[in-house]
Amino acid sequence: MRVAIGSDHAGFALKEDMKRFVQSLGHEVEDMGVFTGEQPADYPDWSKKVTDSIIQGKSDRGILICGTGIGMSIAANKVPGIYAALCASEEAAKLSRLHNDANVLVLGGRTTGKDLAESIAKVWFETEAEGGRHLVRRQKVADREAEALDIGRGGKSGGRVVVMSHPLIQHKLSIVRDKDTSVKDFRDLVQEIAGLMAYEISRNLPLEEVEVETPICTTRGFSISGKKLAVVPVLRAGLGMVEGILRLVPNAKVGHIGLYRDPDSLQPVDYYCKLPNDIGERDIFILDPMLATGGSASAAISHVKRAGGIRISLVSLIAAPEGVSKVRADHPEVDIFTAALDSRLNDHGYIVPGLGDAGDRLFGTK
Ligand code: RB5
């Protein structure tokens, strides 16, 4: 198992012990810091390093240690997809896996001794999650998480960055990242991921009751109430996501925005824009698989706003922190949905680790 471990200054000594111990259990451990206990360190910063690693699929589990373990658990549990358990006994550790399927173990460096911490970690790594009623309860927790994120109400609260950690999305994303995936498989999978993302984003769309005549009798059912969707791919790579969404929402209208990135300045240059006339009445998903510098995405959002668009979300497969910051700075009310938040851009403006050039891989132009 790949395990990311992190602590603040108060958890440093125990982290050093735990790092060695978890390696001795046969796991691959990545130390995310701190690297000294001498300087005060703010626990949310180190919690973020470990939880980002898990959310980005670079680590399978995490261990976080601060003085009491309390600050680290509060910070970690703010992150969708993170289930952090502060454990002070073997029994709690075992149940946090069996019942809660915790993916982060939190320990108190000032409250839990080395021997107890080791026996807690041993049982935590050995124990698998149970299904049945515990799975139902965990699903309810996930539902609360989605409600709290207000997924699907794009534009109402706005400005969220939602990393969609659904296992199917993450599984398919790893295949599209693989440089040996064929053009055909790449294309199919990008559409599938876009569809799965749209499914998740639309989880809380409002419903209204309708009457339905079955072959047997009349009954009540539900219909999505009043919402109209427009998908707006940024040419050309955004085209690769359109069909996957239209399969789920066939009545959505499709606009197009043509932008390319100047290879020298890395700035977006626009050459085409055609949007539905009633764009102002629609929920708008702007599609751009790679949110790299954010220049193209931000320019596309500006185009849509100029045409009257109001409720705008950006849907990307992979986002770089630089792109997220740019869009948030230029359009703070726009929600960003992504399947992964990668680490950085390289000198050529490509996302690292990324998947290369999405347009070339979709259309076989390289
Ligand atoms: C640091 O003094 C301490 O507050 C921190 O390690 C942690 O216990 C917070 O919850």
Question: How would a crystallographer describe the biggest sheet?
Answer: 9 strands, mixed
H/E element order: EHEHEHEHEHHEHHEEEHEEEEEHEHEEEH
Strand content: 15-25%
Shape: globular
* Mean pLDDT across every amino acid position: 90
Fraction of helical residues:
25-40%
As an assembly, this protein is: single chain
Number of helices: 12
- The tally of beta strands, per DSSP, is 18
Radius of gyration from CA coordinates: 23 Å
What class, by secondary structure content?
alpha/beta
Distinct ligands, ions and cofactors found in the model:
D-ribose
Alpha-carbon distance between the termini?
A: 35 Å
**Uncertain parts:** 151-156
What does the model show?
The chain has helices at residues 12-24, 43-55, 70-76, 90-98, 114-126, 133-149, 167-177, 183-201, 242-246, 295-306, 321-330, 358-363; strands at residues 2-7, 28-31, 61-66, 84-86, 104-108, 161-163, 207-213, 218-224, 229-235, 253-254, 256-261, 268-274, 283-287, 290-291, 311-319, 335-341, 344-345, 351-352. By secondary structure, the protein is of the alpha/beta class. It is globular. The strands form four sheets. Strands 6, 9, 10, 11, 12, 13, 14, 15 and 16 form a nine-stranded mixed β-sheet that branches. It has a five-stranded parallel β-sheet with strand order 2-1-3-5-4, sandwiched between helices. Strands 7-8 form a two-stranded antiparallel sheet. Residues 151-156 have low confidence and may be disordered.
Write a compact overview of the structure shown.
The chain is α/β, with parallel strands linked by helices.
